[in-house]
Specification:
With about 200 residues, this protein is of the alpha+beta class. About 20% of the residues lie in helices and about 45% in strands.
Length: about 200
C-alpha cells in the first residue's frame, strides 16, 4: 500500500513540474505566414508577422517580445496627395515593429503586453514601384520626385492597419510546440502556425 501511495505521489510531482514544459523552448524567433490586413483606400495588403521572445535572466515565464511585420501591397491605388494628381497602380514593400513584454500564465497560454509608443512603420521610397495609370494604362513619365511623398503617405495608411493586426497578438491561446520547431496557437479566434528560425 505504501508503495502504491509513493507511486501516486511521484506521478503528481512529475505532473506539476512538467507544467509549462511545452513552452520552455518559446524563447527565440518565430516566423508566421502571410495574413490579409484591413482594406483601406482600395489597397490590398498582406503582412507576414514574426515574434521574437527573449526570456528574462533566471526567469522561464516572462521576458521581452518584439513583433515584426513584412508588409506587401499589390495592385494598389494611390489616392491624391501633394504632388500626385492621378492614381497609379503600384507595388509597395514596408516593415513595421512593436515591442513589449510577454508572460506565460499557463502551460498553453501566453499574454503579450505591447507598448504602442514603440510602434514604427517604414516604407522605403526605393521600394515604391509605380506601374501604370489605372485608367489609361500609360506609364508615369517622372515619378522619382514623388517617391518620398508617396512613402510618407503609404506609411500613414499602413500604420492603423498593422497596429490593429499587432494588437490581436495580446493573447496566444492553445499554444503547442512540436519538436521545438513548429508552434501552433490561436490568436483572436484564428489558427496560426509559426516556424522557429535558427539564429546561430
Amino acid at each position: 500500500m505504501k508503495l502504491k501511495h509513493l507511486v501516486v505521489a511521484l506521478a503528481a510531482i512529475a505532473g506539476v513540474s512538467g507544467c509549462g514544459d511545452n513552452l520552455d523552448v518559446l524563447p527565440g524567433l518565430w516566423d508566421g505566414t502571410p495574413v490579409m490586413l484591413g482594406s483601406q483606400s482600395q489597397m490590398n495588403s498582406t503582412a507576414t508577422v514574426s515574434m521574437e521572445f527573449n526570456a528574462a535572466p533566471g526567469n522561464t515565464v516572462t521576458g521581452d517580445v518584439t513583433l515584426r511585420a513584412f508588409i506587401n501591397m499589390e495592385e494598389a491605388t494611390v489616392p491624391q496627395f501633394d504632388g500626385m494628381v492621378e492614381s497609379y497602380a503600384l507595388n509597395v514593400a514596408a516593415t513595421a515593429m512593436i515591442n513589449g513584454k510577454y508572460n506565460i500564465i499557463d502551460d498553453d497560454e501566453v499574454v503579450l503586453t505591447l507598448d504602442p509608443t514603440t510602434l514604427t512603420v517604414h516604407v522605403d521610397p526605393d521600394a515604391v514601384k509605380y506601374r501604370s495609370n489605372v485608367f489609361t494604362n500609360e506609364q508615369k513619365p517622372i515619378v522619382d520626385s514623388l517617391m518620398p511623398a508617396a512613402a510618407e503617405h503609404l506609411a500613414a495608411v499602413i500604420r492603423p492597419q498593422i497596429s490593429q493586426e499587432f494588437y490581436k497578438y495580446n493573447r496566444l491561446d492553445d499554444v503547442k510546440i512540436k519538436d521545438g520547431a513548429i508552434m501552433s496557437c490561436e490568436i483572436g479566434d484564428r489558427d496560426f502556425t509559426f516556424r522557429k528560425v535558427n539564429m546561430e
